[in-house]
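#structure-requests
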Amino acid sequence: MQSAAQHLQSVGENAADLSGALNEVNQVLALDPQHAEAPGLKAAIEDGIATRRESRARPCRDQQCAPALHARQAPGRAEAARGLTRRRRIPRVAEALTELRAALHKIEEERRLERERIERERQIAALVAEARTALAEQRFDHALDRLAAIEAIDAAAPDLAPLREQVRNEQAAARLRAEPRSHARRLR
């Protein structure tokens, strides 16, 4: 992203100078097709590239070439092309690119956080399944270990408290069932 900003800051007569900026705008549009500023900025950059290519192919003064070039542009894009052909408007494009970069960074961060949340939920679901299996097999220590692992991931997991209570209740019931047998063995 920083290299595109450098390209934009040092825009010369070469159309390739804007290609990095165009790539960044395309990335923003790929992540957020509804972005408000990206389509206009993309059009302006594309027009700037076309303008530079045209001026390279047929050298002339900006005042002579611009009217002919703009007449061939799609309606609404002529002003954007004029803006890019004048150096004093380049900072606006740079400003817009800075905003788009910030928006792209925000979108990427939101997606990263969402992937992490989904991974935590997957891990918790697997651990809950293991704890329930251990509970059904009356392997209480293993079930409690799985619950401790869940708590380490998310102490507020909705299945944690009820399942822990169930493990403790069944563990206590198993002890009570085992007590009369051990007491009877001692009496013998």
